[in-house]
Amino acid sequence: MTNKSIYIKNESLSVDAAYQYILDERSGGNCIFVGSIRDLNMKKTVRSIDFDCYDAMALKEMHKIADELFSAYEITRILMHHRKGLVKIKDIAVIIAVSAIHRDAAFAACRTAIDALKKRVPIWKKEFYQDGHYWINSTP
Description:
By secondary structure, the chain is an alpha+beta fold. The protein has helices at residues 15-22, 55-72, 103-120, and strands at residues 4-9, 29-36, 40-41, 44-53, 75-83, 85-88, 92-100, 123-129, 132-135.
């Protein structure tokens, strides 16, 4: 098993699978961030979100972020999974999961990972409302 799992896919994401992936006998801290689709944004009711990206560039940047985290924190495994395509309310859009020797590193690396993903990875989202749709920004 490798120490990182990174992908973007058109299928549902699994928190259970993410947790099983990061479990490591060397690690005492496991941290999982789950980003789901909410029903309200900009005071408008959201029906769903359509995620799109430039896959090769997005995956390359996600791998780069993971490598940076291995250098910055005492982590043993990292998982970064993101949805692509139409995602409905309450469905999972992104999972970041990190295991580390100690909990502080797990928390810090998980927070750094999701913040970096949102700032640096070329993923676009179109929100669908009752009265139309709107491209939000270039990151999740």
